[in-house]
Amino acid sequence: MSAELRSEEGPSGHAGVLGRLRHLILIGEYGPDERLVEEQLAKRLGVSRTPVRQALAMLEAEGLVGISPNRGATVCSFGLDDVWDVYDLRAVLEGHAARRAAARIEGPELDRLREVAAEMEGKKPGRFSDHEEEVRWLVAANQEFHGTVVAASRNKRLRRLIERTVQVPLVFKAFFWYGPGERAISNHYHRQIVRALEQRDAERAEILMREHVYEGRDFVIRALEGDAGG
66 has which bridge partners? Predict the structure, then answer.
C-alpha cells in the first residue's frame, strides 16, 4: 500500500475524517440543527480544514448534514412529525409496490431477495471492524431488498416517488439503534414478504410490507421519544 493511500485512509486522511465526523453525529455529539464550523472541527480532529470540508460535502450527500450559503453546514434534524410523515408515505407506496410486484416479479429477482434475506440473517459477529461499519452494511442490504421489490413493481413513477420519500439517514438511525430483537423482527418480515411474492399473493405482500414499515416507524418514534426524555 502506498504512503499516499495510507494517508487517505488514516485518521487524518479524507476517509478517516469522514468516519470520525459521521460517528460524532450519529452518537449525538452534534445535535440536530447544530452548526458544524470547519475551523472548530479541524481543531478538534487535529487536521486541516480541507479534509473537514470534503467530509462535510460527503455527509451532505449522505443526508446527515445540510449546507446552505447563509448558515454553512448543520446537522440534519428528524423530529417525530418527520418520522410520521416519511414512514406513513413509505407504508402506502412500498405496500402498493409489493402488491404490484407479486404479479410481475421474475425468478432472478426472487433469488436475489432470498439471498439478501439470508445474508442479513446470517451476519456473523466480528465480521465488521465497528458498529458503524456493520450498520452501513445493513442499510445497504436493506435498501437492496426493498429496492428489488420496488423495481419488480415495474412502475418507474412509483419507483421515483419512493426514492424521494425514503430518507436514508433516518433508516441509518433506525439500524444504528436496532438491537438483536428488532433485527430479528425485520428479518422475519423480509422472509414473509418473499414467501408472499413467491406465492403471487398480492394482498398478503402489500399487508406484510405495510406492517414491516409501520414496525420500523414505531421503533424509531420510541427511540426518539427516549432521546427527548433524556
Answer: 74
pLDDT in tens, 77-105: 878 998 999 999 999 999 999 999 999 99
Helix 131-152 to helix 156-165 angle (10° resolution) is: 150
Give the Cα separation of 68 and 73 in Å (integer).
Answer: 7
Taking residues 64-84, report their average pLDDT.
Answer: 89
CATH entry, 80-228, from 1.20.120.530, 3.30.1330.10, 3.50.50.60, 3.30.479.10: 1.20.120.530
Instruction: Please name which of 83, 131, 97, 45 lies closest in space to residue 205, comparing C-alpha atoms.
Output: 97
Instruction: Return d(Cα 201, Cα 208) in angstroms, integer.
Output: 11
Strands (E), the chain: 35-36, 65-68, 72-75
> What stretch(es) of the chain map to CATH 1.10.10.10?
3-75
Identity at 155, one-letter amino acid code: N
Q: What's residue 57's pLDDT?
A: 95
Q: β-pairing, 65-68 with 35-36? A: unpaired
Query: Residue 85: CB partners within 8 Å, gap ≥ 6?
Result: none
pLDDT for the residue numbered 34: 92
Beta bridge partners of 56: none
For residues 222 and 217, what is the distance between their CA atoms, to the nearest angstrom?
Answer: 9
pTM reported for the whole predicted model: 0.77
